[in-house]
Every structure is written in C-alpha cells, then in structure tokens.
Design brief:
heterodimer, A: mainly beta, Immunoglobulin-like, four-stranded antiparallel sheet, globular, B: mainly beta, seven-stranded mixed sheet
C-alpha cells in the first residue's frame, strides 16, 4: 500500500519569496504523483502531475515539481509567490498497475497550508 | 460542462438521522469517488466506483453506503449519523491522464 508524507503542515512566506513544499511517498511499485491545490471553501484542483517522461513537471502558474525516485520525493517549488497562491496544497500518489494504468485510487498527504503575507 | 456537482452544500443532522449526499458529473467518466476531509488529516477515500453497477470500499467505508445506477450519479448514504461523521465530503470523477475532478464539497455537521 502507498503512503504520502507532507513534512510541513504550515508554511508562511512573504510575497515574492521562493517556496518549497515537501512531499515524500512510500510504495512497493511504480507510482504516479500529483499536487492538488485547495483554495478556501472550494474543492481540489489539479496543479500538476508526473506520469512518465521528464521528471520535472510544471504548472501554468509558475509552480514546478521534480520526481526523485531515489529519494522517493516530489517536492513542489515556486521561485516567487503571490498573495493569490495562499491555499492548502495536497500531494497525492496512485500506484501503477500491471497494464500501465493506475489502481485508480489516490492516497493523499495531510496537506500543507501555504500562507503568503504582504 | 458543469463538471462535478454536489448537493447540498451544507447540512446539519441530528445523531441517528439519515441522509443522502448527491453527486453528479456530466463528463461521462466511468470512475467516481467519495472522500471525506477532516482538518489536518488530508482526504480519505470512502467508496469508489469503476462504472455503473460496480462499487467498492475505500479506506474508511464504515457508516456509509453507495450505489451507482447510472454513469452520471454516485450518491453517498449515511444511515445513522454519528458525530464522527462531521466532515467535509468531496465527490470526484476520474478523467483522462489520471486526473481527478472534484466537486465543491458538502459540509456536514452532526449534533
């Protein structure tokens, strides 16, 4: 069974500062990796994902994450954050099945609340 | 496309009451999921469905039931509400490239 650990429950930063949200996972098989974002009083939205290919993946709003298989990590980074990035961020994993598809179930970390202060 | 819709948005139940949380998606997705979100605990999978007529338990199924008679609808039933079921419930459906699409959530308070 897979598991996800988000090492920081809260990360406060100032606007325009860089940020890294850490995520480690555990699985006995290959995995797909995801970051979802939840703005206040809303559902979750996919931010970015790693399925295969390049280990560095990017979102349209400047976030990036790198899949590191040896360290079983998928940390999320942004070089310069905005007030509007204030949200809760969830790392998630699903296991790759024998046919290449996932086991269709996401396992989430406990979330990291990113607060961007002016 | 409305995506994934959930009703109601908020509900207060008394202990022992029952209710159904509604979830509908208009994307023709086969896979659908119910999660609960508790503060500081992330999301836990309650039940999921791989298509009409097929459902299976997730990580925390006790106290809940589901059915899937159509591709579009995936209701979640609470038979005897307990305070431990106070939570925010999210429905999701799985599209292409492993992406799950989430509804806006139902906030449930059991008193």
């Amino acid at each position: 069974a897979q598991s996800v650990t988000q090492l920081d429950s809260q990360v406060p930063v100032f606007e325009e500062a860089p940020v890294e949200l850490r995520c480690n996972y555990s699985s006995s098989v290959s995995v797909y990796l995801f970051w979802y974002v939840q703005y206040p009083n809303q559902g979750l939205q996919l931010l970015l994902k790693y399925l295969s290919g390049s280990t560095l993946v990017e979102s349209i709003n400047g976030f990036e994450a790198e899949f590191n298989k040896s360290q079983t990590s998928f940390h999320l980074r942004k070089p310069s954050v905005h007030i509007s990035d204030t949200a809760e961020y969830f790392c998630a994993v699903s296991e790759v099945g024998g046919s290449g598809g996932s086991n269709y179930k996401l396992t989430f970390g406990k979330g990291t609340l990113l607060t961007v202060n002016p | 496309n409305a995506g994934v819709t959930q009703t109601p948005k908020f509900r207060i139940l008394k202990i022992g009451q029952s209710m159904t949380l509604q979830c509908t998606q208009d994307m023709n997705h086969n896979y659908m999921y119910w999660y609960r979100q508790d503060p500081g605990m992330g999301l836990k999978l309650i039940y999921y469905s791989v298509g009409a007529g097929i459902t299976d338990k997730g990580e925390v199924p006790n106290g809940y039931n589901v059915s899937r008679s159509t591709t579009e609808d995936f209701p979640l039933r609470l038979e005897l509400a307990a305070p431990s079921q106070t939570s925010v419930y999210f429905c999701a459906s799985r599209g292409s490239q492993e992406t799950q699409y989430f509804g806006p959530g139902t906030r449930l308070l059991v008193l």
